[in-house]
């Protein structure tokens, strides 16, 4: 079978582009740790209330301007034991799981966005540099009360 010279060139260029693309994806995934959430931390969704740290959800100070916010997503609410107020410049480690169905976890105007799956512990970290009001929203349709699922987060001076 005869392949035209220009077809051979485009096949070589296309193949090399594919190899380069896969190489870059491999470096990002394995060397730089840019991987999707995994099943490293799983728990029984029926026993969330008695499993640490979800047995005491809420905001905890863990260092100088460093906080951990443990939340449980369930039927149209995010469980947290207090008003969420943090100082400007603080880093917050969010740790969230779901008891019932798939929920979303998004804070508009930030890069915080995760899908919360029952039985999986999801974590994400964000530093709030500017003061203001933020709203933690469920961005995954979870039932008839989905539109009311939100919790205010206040970043103060």
TrEMBL record:
Q: Major location, coarse class?
A: other
Cytochrome oxidase subunit II copper A binding domain residues: 49-157
Signal peptide span: none
Q: Which reaction does it catalyse?
A: 4 Fe(II)-[cytochrome c] + O2 + 8 H(+)(in) = 4 Fe(III)-[cytochrome c] + 2 H2O + 4 H(+)(out)
Gene3D superfamilies on file: Cupredoxins - blue copper proteins
Per the record, the coiled-coil ranges are none
Localization, UniProt? Cell envelope
Purpose: Subunits I and II form the functional core of the enzyme complex. Electrons originating in cytochrome c are transferred via heme a and Cu(A) to the binuclear center formed by heme a3 and Cu(B).
Per its record, how is this protein called by name? Cytochrome aa3 subunit 2
Q: Which organism is it from?
A: Guptibacillus hwajinpoensis
